[in-house]
Design a protein that fits this description.
This protein has four helices and six strands; from the N terminus they run βαβαβαβββα. It has about 110 residues and is of the alpha/beta class. A hairpin with an 8-residue loop joins strand 5 and strand 6.
Length: about 110
């Protein structure tokens, strides 16, 4: 089972992402915006899902991919329905894709 740490999202955006991921049996671990790194150490997730629309997401991703290179990061935007996927062991390289339920699930579980 894939363990996913959910970052801080607006309520509706969070609800939609949670419903998509829970439908596929993914284990979700929640956190608040300021506690992502602390929860990462406690939860030991396979994937972290972050809100790409937040101002601090770029810096948070840089810290995660360098300190925790085996963790995949998926940053989702609700303003522009797309996601940016940072695969493990790529140290900041990413690919972009539409934010679609099947593509999100695939990105998290791949």
């Amino acid at each position: 089972m894939t363990r996913v740490l959910m970052g801080d999202f607006e309520a509706l955006h969070r609800l939609g992402i949670e419903q998509i991921l829970r439908a596929d049996g993914i284990e979700l671990v929640e956190t608040t915006g300021d506690d992502v790194l602390g929860r990462l150490l406690e939860a030991l997730p396979d994937v972290i899902v972050l809100d790409l629309d937040k101002d601090n997401t770029g810096e948070l991703v840089r810290v995660i991919v360098h300190r925790f290179p085996r963790v995949k990061v998926v940053a989702c935007s609700s303003q522009h329905p797309m996601m940016r996927v940072f695969p493990p062991l790529h140290y900041g390289e990413f690919y972009e894709s539409d934010l679609d339920p099947a593509l999100l699930t695939s990105a998290v579980q791949a």
